[in-house]
Design a protein that fits this description.
Blueprint lengths: L6 H10 L4 H11 L11 E9 L5 E7 L16 E3 H8 L6 H10 L13 H6 L4 E5 L2 H7 L4 H9 L3 E4 L6 H13 L7 E4 L3 E6 L2 H22 L18 H18 L4 E4 L3 H7 L4 H4 L10 H4 L4 E4 L9 H15 L13 E5 L5 E7 L2 H23 L8 H8 L2 H14 L8 E5 L4 H12 L3 E6 L13 E5 L5 H15 L4 E4 L15 H26 L6 E5 L12 H21 L5 E7 L10 H10 L4 H5 L10 H12 L10 E4 L8
Parallel strand pairs: 5-6, 9-10, 12-13, 12-15, 13-14, 15-16, 16-17, 17-18
Antiparallel strand pairs: 1-2, 1-4, 2-3, 4-7, 6-7, 8-11, 10-11
Length: 675
Amino acid sequence: MINRWDEKKAIQYVAENPVLGLRVYSSRLLGEESKLVLHGGGNTSLKGLTVNIFGEEVATLFVKGSGSDLKTIESKGFPPVDRERLLRLAELPALTDSEMMRELRLALLEPTAPTPSVEAIMHALIPLDYVDHTHSDAVVTLSNTRTGETRLRELYGDEVLILPYVMPGFVLAKQIARVVLENDCSHLRGIVLLHHGIITFANSAKESYDEMISLVTMAEEALLQGISSIPDESSEMSLSAEVLSEDILNVARIRKSAGEKFEAPILVALQHNENVLALASETNVADLIQKGPLTPDHTIHTKPFGACFDFSDGFTDFGFESFETFYCNYFSSNASGEHQRLDLVPRFAAYKGRAGLKALVTLAPTVSQLGIVSDIVEHTAKAILNGELLGGWCPLSHSDLFDVEYWELEQAKVKKDKDVKSTGEFTGRVALVTGAASGIGLACVNLLVSKGAAVLAVDKSEDIHNAFKSPSVLAYQGDLTEPSVITGCVEAAVKAFGGIDILVSNAGNFLKSANIELLEDSIWESSLDINLTSHMKLLRECVPFLRLGFDAAVIFVGSKNVAAPGPGAVAYSASKAGLSQLARVAALELGEDAIRVNTIHPNAVYDTGLWDTKLLKSRAEHYRMSIDDYRRSNVLKTDIASSDVATAILAFAGQDFLKTTGAQVPVDGGNQRVI
């Protein structure tokens, strides 16, 4: 592992905050290493002094606050805590989780600060200023093998204490208290917590960070020496040549079944990292993914084990029932009266297709949770492969994993995340939006994301790659008049999110004004290709996935010209009229599958790609109007923006119009000719 300490950057952090600057800097260095800290894991601290209102010095522990991420943590992410009070807590014979969290809040020296980490008492006990705790992949991988403890003792000798696994929180604090009493920590390089992670400490931020990098590097080198080969994590295997259309449809089938069991839409991703594919190809993958995760805290995101979806013999239950049975047995074997069983939907699974494709899929209710699960599965896959090469993958027992999965403190965090992230109307639903780089399409994508949806945004413009920063949007560039682009974007949506629930068919163009006698064949044909034929082909490609969708809806973006065409626009008007008929027939045909098909007819929307300042000016002059009057030349005398059209489109995709199909609705401020 590379030591990325930069003295110039360190000095800059100190200049910004003389007390906590180095603590923030080294914490971020650790947090940026996914092999050390994954999605909010790990914690760091600094011991110092603060002065209270009476002018008295108070021994203070600045410790990572609960909910902070070391990768992006700031000074305010280290709440100040009364260290003496924490040390007194460590002397208590017992402390429940809820009592501990209450006492941590009472020990705060700033009442509005975040709640201190559950490991705060442990940090307070170690008698050096800087303490770093990570969940190093390499260290935990070695730990999770049959001879892991022996290997670690041989690797580190007497310079590092190797401690047995205990539950995080107060139990771990008591374990560390005994270590502090029995050892001179200033002569130790670190502490390894089996199946959990590694701790380093020093009186300077750099020394503690250096020790972490050094000890982890030793573990990584031991892995390299102990196994014959490690997959190259920098390379990825493309699934495009191996995944058949039947496999893509199977992903949507998995999502549909999972959502029905979850009683809400859910997202599914087909994983393609090389380590993941290598694990999926193991003959005993079913046994391996049921043993347990890399570290126990991963269970709150992934559950302690995965499922197996086997389509090799055709479409059946393919694994949900066996997972439910396995999980229910696990729960009943470990639960007590106060436990309430969580849902029975797996968060990852091995996949086997009829044509022989082997992969892993991940499942989660939201895009952010899907990303977390996918990252954890990727790290776990590599760890399992290495663990097997080192003699066998042996993580914690299911009873220990249960204690963490159903730990009240972790469950409280999950509930908080769910309350915050799952409030959108379209949470868990997947939309495919065309013409998404500007105008109405852009507004639709942004509005869908704000309401919780995952979106595949398609446009032929290169601008699509820079249009969105949200992880909830996957950009796809291509011309929808090309059949391969239609197939490619649909498959991309299903691979990334598991299916399609909403199709916003918006791509279109007004190529050139010309009266019929002067109309070029190429303009007519091109207009039909993009404004009509591409919509039909895209819908045709999406139908099998919409059938497996949740509250499936198709919204076509038409035009005022359908009801009120004008001279010189025959190619555009005819293609949009054809689109309107396509939507009506689709509503009739797809209604029995509960797929709604409606059309929005916008007009005078001047922030779209069809209009620019020059064209707007010329049209206003043609009607002998000012630009402002021309923009508002509707019954309501109002401006129509892309966002107004997007609002109407989402209404038809949502619950308000769940019983409406075949509708043709104008969004134009009231056009006299249409009315």
